[in-house]
Amino acid sequence: MYLVRSGAAAQFEQLVLEYGQNPIELMQQAGLRQAQFRDPNTYIAYPRLAGLLEIAAQRCAQPLFGVVLAQRQTLHVLGDLPMLVSREATVAEALARVNQNLYLHAAGVALEVQPQGEQVRLALSINVQSPHGMQQLMQLSVAQLAMFVCSLLNISSTALTLHLRQPAPAGQGTDARSSTLPALRFAESFDGVVLKSSQL
Q: Is the CB of residue 23 less than 8 Å from the CB of residue 10?
């Protein structure tokens, strides 16, 4: 079974409360306990985190819950990964180092650098299945990837467009929490972000 640091879901409880829902009840429904989230370095089952995010999206009536949650987070959600790559000379070297050490944050995740002429795709894949679905987990993961890459490039955390294979949700959340989200492109051929080759 693949595991992920519970810190990946930082700010979950606060966001769920803002939507008027009970985060502890949602955790229990997903087979998790609140105590598992107290220490961000506690590992939890990846499929259960995926289930928790899907349950929360439904109960909060927010189809972009994963992206909204990521916008509340800082690089601390990635644990030691940012520190491990901080001394790399280039963004390309930092990304290669991240891929080597991604298991420290989440097992079952891979980052692939795909050159596309003058652009480069940073494509995420998550080798996890959840009976509840994976859309919210992928939203969260791609948004966290974008936040990390933006920190490497020293640009605004919403500067990169998030590319998602999932279809556009029928009712993209129109509350104030959705107004500050990065640009999103749905029904894409990959999950990730695109950079100019020169940025590497």
A: no
